[in-house]
Amino acid sequence: MKILVIENDKKSANQLIQMLNDCYDEVSIYGPLANLAEIRCFFQEEVTIDIILSDIKLDDGLSFDALVDIPNNTPVIFTTTHDEYAIKAFNYNGIAYLLKPIKRDELTMSIDKYQRMISYVREMACIYKQVHNKELYRQRFLVVEKDGYISIPASEVSYISTELGIVHLFLKNNKRYMIDMSLEDIYSQLDPSCFFRATRQHIVNISSVARLTNWFNRRMKIILSEYPKTEIVISKEKVSRLKKWLDQ
Questions:
Q1: Phi, psi angle pair for 227, to nearest 5°
Q2: Labelling 29: which of 61, 74, 184, 204 has CA 20 to 30 A away?
Q3: Bridge partners (DSSP) listed for residue 213
């Protein structure tokens, strides 16, 4: 769990951070941030935060002025000495409003509330995906063949590649078809549990991955069942994502 602490009082920040470390084993704490400028600067980086613990009155204004711009509607637990902002706080993704001095049981109850919310949302998303899977992801490709068209199930595609701006589907039966779509558009329509954007030129089907082999400079090479001679080398930055995808 990644938690951002926004607090301009060092003593309060240290107490809050100590409380979090005492109560939770797997927690990464960011901050404390003391003013609006630091908050805005922090969220310019590509950092994903699960929950924010935020004071309201900071060195240069109210935290609301910066929180209104945070991405992904990150939930906020407000920690403050001022009770007059309680109603307004819930317009800024507030899920709890704690008055200082913060009590340990109140803090853990608030974070437990967040964890229950996330668990529920994930469960609903999973159910929705199972029910509406056919509507969410592309199931077939219509391609040109001879004097007409044929429809190919996405599951029959071993991998997809682009070269000189031309995209081809390589099927498990060793046939190949050209398709008038960009690799980016195709990947956005495919089920990410089945297809992986291995390189800028390749998308691979998980059912066609026979094995991985080590390559130079901590990279890895994907060996496809149907196309073992095809060169698909994964950058070292993508190796961990690839392993996680194959291990799901």
A1: -135, 65
A2: 61
A3: 221
Distance CA 49, CA 118 (A): 13
* For residues 139-146, average pLDDT: 90
- Token output for 223: 């060996």
User: CB–CB of 176/161 below 8 Å?
Assistant: no
Q: How far is CA 194 from CA 123, 164, 248, in A?
A: 20, 26, 10
Phi, psi of 10 (to 5 degrees): -60, -40
Helices 104-136, 10-23: crossing angle, 10 deg rounding: 70
What's residue 169's pLDDT?
A: 96
SS3 for the chain is CEEEEECCCHHHHHHHHHHHHHHCCCCEEEEEECCHHHHHHHCCCCCCCCEEEECCEECCEECHHHHCCCHHHCCEEEEECCCCCHHHHCCCCEEEEEECCCCHHHHHHHHHHHHHHHHHHHHHHHHHHHHHHHHHCCCEEEEEECCEEEEEEHHHEEEEEEECCEEEEEECCCCEEEECCCHHHHHHHCCCCCEEECCCCEEEEHHHEEEEEECHHHCEEEEECCCCCCCCEECHHHHHHHHHHHCC
Q: What order of strands is seen across the sheet that includes strand 209-214? A: 209-214, 220-224, 233-234
Rounded CA-CA distance 56/79 in Å is: 7
The string of pLDDT tens digits covering residues 42-51 is: 888 767 888 9
End-to-end CA distance of the chain: 20
> What is the b/e burial string over 133-162, where b = at least 16 CB atoms within 10 angstroms of the residue's CB?
eeeebbeebebeeeeeeeebebeebbbbbb
